[in-house]
Each structure stands twice: as structure tokens, then as C-alpha cells.
């Protein structure tokens, strides 16, 4: 019975090794490919410009609110309690407006990123799929992913870049 168990274990090992060898595995440096794509460079530039505009708008509103707050603080001793209460309510309203501006800017930025990077991601995924089929790869893993445990397979980065027409 013991010999049968050892024989069975040996057969399982041989089958496992042959199955593992039958699978073609490749890695690709996704960030390297993405950063080399001209479309991504343009999208990054557009998004940075968009973000700069939104941050400037928020800064302008924040600076105006800060100046008004300092003015109100300086004038507070000379004003009535009702006037100071009204000014506090006005400052709270300004703070709420600034917070809403920030939230809207964040949502707008996310929407702009989705629109800009969607076609780039699709193009990259299509190129990876085409390279995988052309070279018989069963798996292509991101070489930078923390989940990568084995990186001795072929590297498809050059083939994907060639497919995309970039260096």
C-alpha cells in the first residue's frame, strides 16, 4: 500500500510538472508601456491642466473667504451681537460652498479621468490580447504586481510596445 501511495504521488508530480510546462506565461511592464503611450502622456497633461484650473478656482474662493474672515474678526468688537451672528452664518455658508466646490471638482476630475483613460486602457488591453494570441501565451501578468510570484517567463513588454507602435 505504501508503494502505491508513493507511485501515485510521483504520477501526480509528473502530471503537474508537464501541465505547468504546457502553459506559456509572460510578463509585461504595464506602467512602462502606459507611460510610453503618447495618448497617456496627452491625457496626463490635459488632466493636470484641468486640475490646475479647479485648484485655482478653489484657492481664489478660499483666499476671499479668509480675507473676509479676518475682516470680520477685526470688526467684531465694534459690531452688534446680531451683526456678528449674521457674519458667522455667512462664513459658515462660505465654508460650505468651498467644500461643495472641492467635492464637485473631485467628481469632475474622476469623470474626466474615466473619459480620458478609458480608450487608452482598451487599446492597451486589445494589444495585450493580440500579442498573447500571436505568441501562444496563456497568461500575461503585470511584472509590477505584488501578486506576481514567478517571473521567469517571457517578457511581452517589447511585443506590446511594438504592437502599439511605440518605443
TrEMBL record:
Gene Ontology cellular component terms for the protein in this record: cytosol
Superkingdom, natural source: Bacteria
Alphabetical list of Pfam families matching this protein: OmpH
Coiled coil: 55-111
Keywords: Coiled coil, Signal
Keyword Coiled coil carried by entry: yes
The keyword Coiled coil belongs to this UniProt entry's keyword annotation: yes
GO molecular function annotations of the record: unfolded protein binding
UniProt signal peptide: 1-20
GO biological process, one term: protein stabilization
Family, as annotated: Belongs to the Skp family.
Protein name: OmpH family outer membrane protein
Organism in which the protein naturally occurs: Chryseobacterium elymi
Amino acid at each position: 500500500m505504501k508503494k502505491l501511495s508513493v507511485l501515485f504521488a510521483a504520477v501526480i508530480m509528473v502530471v503537474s510538472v508537464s501541465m505547468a510546462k504546457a502553459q506559456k506565461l509572460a510578463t509585461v511592464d504595464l506602467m512602462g508601456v502606459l507611460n510610453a503611450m503618447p495618448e497617456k502622456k496627452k491625457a496626463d497633461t490635459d488632466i493636470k491642466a484641468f486640475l490646475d484650473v479647479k485648484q485655482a478656482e478653489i484657492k481664489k474662493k478660499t483666499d476671499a473667504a479668509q480675507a473676509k474672515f479676518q475682516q470680520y474678526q477685526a470688526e467684531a468688537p465694534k459690531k452688534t451681537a446680531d451683526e456678528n451672528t449674521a457674519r458667522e452664518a455667512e462664513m459658515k455658508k462660505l465654508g460650505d460652498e468651498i467644500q461643495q466646490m472641492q467635492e464637485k471638482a473631485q467628481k469632475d476630475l474622476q469623470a474626466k479621468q474615466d473619459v480620458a483613460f478609458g480608450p487608452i486602457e482598451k487599446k492597451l488591453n486589445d494589444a495585450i490580447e493580440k500579442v498573447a494570441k500571436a505568441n501562444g501565451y496563456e497568461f500575461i501578468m503585470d511584472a509590477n504586481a505584488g501578486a506576481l510570484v514567478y517571473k521567469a517567463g517571457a517578457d511581452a513588454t517589447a511585443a506590446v510596445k511594438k504592437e502599439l507602435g511605440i518605443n
